[in-house]
Amino acid sequence: SIPFLETVRSARSQEERVRLRDELYHRLLEELIDEELIRQAAQTLEIRVQQSEVDRAIENVMRQNDLQPNEFWAAVREQGYTESQYRADVARQLLRLKVLNQRVRDRVNITEQDVRREYDFQVRRVTRQLRFRASHIFFPLAADAGTPEVTRVRNEATAVRASITDEATFEAAVEQNTGGELGWLNEGDLPESLEAMLQTMQPGEVSDPVRGDAGYHIFFLHERERGESQVPSFEEARDAIYSTLLEDAMGHQEQLYLEELRRNATVVRRL
Question: What backbone torsions phi and psi does residue 217 show, to the nearest 5 degrees?
Fold first, then answer.
């Protein structure tokens, strides 16, 4: 919640600060209720977390981040936690995981067909996307530029465009102005107005000046292709897709289980 507190402090008005503070209090209260329900469920199920399990979990985090113990605990302190607080938080997370694995894991069944269906969906989505390899000449505009400045920059871009007849003259214009190679761009990487221009172009074509968020651009389209080459094989993607589907399904079942615990509990909120 420390980052959220920083958001509250940086609010622009007292009204916004109060709203964000109330949201934080509500979120923390709900988290505390869930934590207590999980703790009670763990008692009923006779589930406990051993200190050795906490140690192993912390060692795994160190190994995954390639940190020595002194480096790791220094990073923890920078986040505003003491070692005992961090260990207690890890223990709570492990307890929650154990309870959920025992109570909801058997409700989740990710089949090979599910993984294949998701893979096919991702393939269709990627192959519908276009990729562009482009260069541009950029004519910057200040965010608060008035009409005279906008007109001046647009006229400058138009004059430069008139001097370009092919890739060689485009490259010469790049050297005399601001711009260069943009590399491969996927759909969505650029603002809609700029992307719309690239979608109408053919390889080897130079665009007219087009207005973007920060100024005018003249594009040269080197190549355009569908996204098939970005698609890994099913065997390469299978484990990652399975993990994602399992995580999503477990998250959904976790919410259902917590709702079930709340229905069977008496929750009294005192604010």
Answer: -130, 145
- pLDDT tens digits for 213-248? 889 999 999 988 765 556 688 898 899 999 999 989
- Please, which residues bridge with residue 132 across strands? 185, 224
- Distance between CA 266 and CA 27 in Å, rounded? 19
DSSP 3-state assignment of 232? coil
Per-residue CA distances from 120 to 40, 127, 167, 241, 246 (Å) = 42, 11, 39, 11, 17
Q: Three-state SS for 215? A: strand
Task: Give the DSSP letter string of 129-177.
Answer: -EEEEEEEEEEE--TT--HHHHHHHHHHHHHHHHT--SHHHHHHHHHHS
Tokens of 233: 């094989």
Average pLDDT, the chain: 85
